[in-house]
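Researcher: Good morning. I'm working through a list of sequences from a screen, and I'd like to move beyond sequence-only analysis. For each chain I'm collecting a predicted structure so we can compare shapes side by side. This is the next one on the list. No need for commentary yet; just the structure.
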Amino acid sequence: MPVIRVLVVDDHPVVRQGLVAILRWEQDIELVGEAADGLEAVRLILERRPDVVLLDLRLPQLDGIGVMKQVRARLPEVRFLVLTTYDTDAYITPALTAGAQGYLLKDALPDELGQAVRALMQGRAALESGVAARLLGHLSDGETGDELSVRELEVLRLLVAGTSNKSIAGRLGLSENTVKSHLNHIFSKLQVQSRGEAVAAALQRGLVPLKGR
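Model: Good morning. Structure tokens for this chain:
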């Protein structure tokens, strides 16, 4: 398994050191740096080019949203996993729109952290289930999404759930190439460029119904 290069950004030393300690137990993860403020984060990310950045949203100098915007303009391949204490729409949706592919709360278990990092590397979104349910609950009565076909909506719902292209193909009885084609159409119709932005758009527009609530 390829080694995943990770950079940690958090302004609280205890939290940052705790994350570093957790990651060092993961054999397939290599820590390539840590930053305590947004400007330092941007500098280190551009310099060291990590695969995944664990990012707090509230940072001195430059907040997490600003970090993602600056980095995405120059290194769009970098993946961002937001790790924060804030689970309200005011934080979640802007983070996903800015380019976060994952959103976890800081009370996540160590195993969940490693799984989320791997999910991002596999091209899947890593959205904490409680966060997704809360947003979907707020937005499930929104727009109908008539611009998407029934099949595209099925693909989008599985995408929001963090399902990989291969798993989407298996669940829907499609080839992976067909899934990729559907995703391209979804991205075009939603006017987004990434899985994270597609998740944000789905949540903002209420395209994914909340089940079991």
